[in-house]
């Protein structure tokens, strides 16, 4: 029986030779991640189950990233709950307030390899499909069951494979490609499907760029995002992890496989406009809109390549006097690289506010919130009403290059 990548990984995890879309399987989890915001409810639910010890402390990863350092008594209490949990359960894979965003830390610290089944109490857990793992977000109470048993049931998803061809023009990036796809497909166009990204364009992308694509699969309703492992994947895994792995690839004649062809040769920078991620327009249609804040960071675009792209544009220039710009690296390692490369000097000289590695304004519950009537241009993944502060604010989404160029002019600007 021919199968897709998603079907093969779920079959392996369920101890079966084969599965097909629509089938319900009980699967064994390889990696379970939770963070400071969703973790406490998982712990509370786990304690109600009554299982004294987690099924395997080495397969659980706890990361503080959403409200770090703690910005309220409630946040501080959440941190205390999770610190006590990892201590009592002998969980060694614990990253406190000084490491960075969960979806950067998991691959960076070697927790993700091809062929694994990964769950996290965060919807953007699908990021890790960039390394060929079936990775998806689950609820906090579902995570309690994973903590207890190491298993969870899944409905095997159908697959939509985006065959992306063409060469990206200067200042057009993976973020623009995935925003273009979301705009075409719609917010619910891939509901509960495995979103595979393939083709010449994806082959030419770095692993970081592929993470951008997979990260935003959820924004079109996807269950997971996936890229078939290639030499770039294996090199990344070799550099970051000592775990063994199994490579899965899609059979192109699999019955549940649907294909969609995307040509990016003429693609311009893309902008997701308020208040939905699928409200996508070319930058030429929205340039000139005045902005109050620029946020460069998040699990989507807080990597070193994003900081480099922004620094090239900001070097020797100043952030507009009417704009505040926040740069938040996705991890401490990225922060250190930016320091070593002199990028931080460029940002500080330009008038940027550089913050510690964390989720920042993305979740609307920490630093950099928007006031009523304000407009933000953000490299993050969501622009829902009230997402980054006031419900009366507006959020536009873009690549790092558009964000940097716009910070200089004070309005949405084409970096070309």
TrEMBL record:
Its EC number is 4.2.1.33. The lineage of its organism: Archaea, Methanobacteriati, Methanobacteriota, Methanomada group, Methanobacteria. Binds 1 [4Fe-4S] cluster per subunit. It comes from Methanobacterium alkalithermotolerans. Catalyzes the isomerization between 2-isopropylmalate and 3-isopropylmalate, via the formation of 2-isopropylmaleate. [4Fe-4S] cluster binds at residues 299, 359, 362. InterPro entries: Acnase/IPM_dHydase_lsu_aba_1/3 (IPR015931), Acoase/IPM_deHydtase_lsu_aba (IPR001030), Aconitase_4Fe-4S_BS (IPR018136), Aconitase_4Fe-4S_dom (IPR036008), HAcnase/IPMdehydase_lsu_prok (IPR011826), Homoacnase/IPMdehydase_lsu (IPR006251), IPM_dehydratase_rel_enz (IPR050067), IPMI_cat (IPR033941). Heterodimer of LeuC and LeuD. The keyword Flavoprotein does not apply. Residues 7-284, 285-410 form the Aconitase/3-isopropylmalate dehydratase large subunit alpha/beta/alpha domain. One of its GO terms (biological process) is L-leucine biosynthetic process. Belongs to the aconitase/IPM isomerase family. LeuC type 2 subfamily. Transmembrane segments: none annotated. Its cofactor is [4Fe-4S] cluster. One of its GO terms (molecular function) is metal ion binding. It catalyses: (2R,3S)-3-isopropylmalate = (2S)-2-isopropylmalate. The keyword Lyase applies. Pathway: Amino-acid biosynthesis; L-leucine biosynthesis; L-leucine from 3-methyl-2-oxobutanoate: step 2/4. The gene is leuC. Pfam families: Aconitase. HAMAP family: LeuC_type2. This is 3-isopropylmalate dehydratase large subunit. Keywords: 4Fe-4S, Amino-acid biosynthesis, Branched-chain amino acid biosynthesis, Iron, Iron-sulfur, Leucine biosynthesis, Lyase, Metal-binding.
């Amino acid at each position: 029986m021919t199968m897709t990548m998603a079907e093969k990984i779920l079959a392996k995890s369920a101890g079966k030779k084969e599965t097909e879309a629509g089938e319900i399987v009980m699967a064994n989890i390889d990696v379970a991640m939770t963070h400071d915001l969703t973790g406490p409810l998982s712990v509370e639910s786990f304690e109600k189950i009554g299982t004294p010890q987690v099924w395997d402390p080495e397969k659980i990863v706890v990361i503080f990233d959403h409200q770090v350092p703690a910005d309220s008594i409630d946040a501080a209490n959440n941190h205390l709950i999770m610190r006590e949990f990892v201590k009592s359960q002998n969980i060694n894979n614990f990253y406190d307030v000084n490491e960075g965003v969960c979806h950067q830390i998991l691959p960076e610290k070697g927790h993700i390899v091809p062929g694994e089944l990964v769950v996290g109490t965060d919807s953007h857990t699908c990021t890790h499909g960039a390394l060929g793992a079936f990775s998806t977000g689950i609820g906090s109470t579902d995570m309690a069951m994973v903590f207890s048993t190491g298993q969870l049931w899944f409905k095997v998803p159908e697959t939509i494979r985006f065959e992306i061809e063409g060469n990206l023009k200067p200042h057009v990036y993976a973020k623009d490609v995935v925003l273009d796809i979301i705009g075409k497909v719609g917010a619910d166009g891939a509901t509960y499907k495995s979103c595979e990204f393939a083709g010449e364009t994806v082959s030419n992308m770095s692993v970081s760029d592929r993470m951008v694509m997979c990260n935003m699969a959820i924004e079109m309703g996807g269950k997971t995002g996936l890229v078939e492992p290639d030499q770039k994947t294996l090199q990344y895994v070799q550099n970051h992890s000592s775990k063994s792995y199994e490579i899965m690839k899609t059979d192109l004649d699999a019955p549940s496989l649907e294909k969609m062809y995307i040509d990016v040769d003429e693609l311009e920078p893309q902008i997701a406009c308020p208040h939905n991620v699928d409200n996508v327009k070319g930058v030429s249609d929205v340039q000139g809109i005045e902005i109050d804040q620029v946020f460069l960071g998040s699990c989507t675009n807080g990597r070193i390549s994003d900081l480099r792209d922004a620094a090239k544009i900001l070097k020797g220039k100043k952030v507009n006097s009417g704009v505040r710009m926040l740069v938040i690296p996705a991890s401490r390692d990225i922060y250190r690289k930016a320091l070593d490369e002199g990028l931080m000097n460029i940002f500080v000289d330009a008038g940027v506010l550089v913050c510690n590695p964390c989720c920042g304004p993305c979740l609307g519950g920490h630093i950099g919130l928007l006031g009523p009537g304000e407009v933000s241009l953000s490299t993050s993944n969501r622009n829902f009403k009230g997402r980054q502060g006031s419900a009366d604010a507006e959020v536009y989404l873009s690549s790092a290059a558009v964000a940097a160029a716009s910070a200089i002019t004070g309005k949405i600007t084409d970096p070309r």
